[in-house]
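Predict the 3D structure for this chain.
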Amino acid sequence: AGGVVVAILLFTDCAGFQGLKRHTGPEYETETDSWLRVVRERGGNGMWLVTRGYHPGDDVVAIATASPLSHAAVLDRDQLQVIEAVRKGVVATDLKKFLRESHRMVLIQPPDWTAAKGQATVARARSKIGEGYDFLGTVGLPDDKRWYCSELAIWASGVRVDRIGPENVLHPKSMPKLGKVLFDSDQRDGQPDK
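Done. Predicted structure below.
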């Protein structure tokens, strides 16, 4: 398992590796603004934002899991932020920046979501800011003091995680089946979404 993690780290740092092309320009900024509007109107604290991002790590996850989705975060709608586990650990990120760095975005309401449960989910996720990234967890050897993206989002919603074995890895691609999809932007195309 350690060799897999080393290979992933080397692969994601390889300058020659090409993933999705990041779209820029006014039409894509307008599209990002439309996604932000949808999240503000339909989203609630503690909901999940599952995306296909442009970072090299997103490319590795998408390829390794044969999925159009590669990352997950917890929405803090009040602060217009997401709490996410990235390579440097658990951080809070500006919501618009997060959306700008996404090629696709799916807004998911966790099971049995209420506004009060959503607030508790945000508080749980925020309590882990500063903790490290769970590289070994992505191959089925979790560490209860470290987090990978979907593990953090699902745990913060009150679901037990940290079960050993590759079959227990929580992939972003499975998250739409775990909750209710409220919005799916599909792939970024420069057209505002409603």
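The chain has a mean pLDDT of 88.
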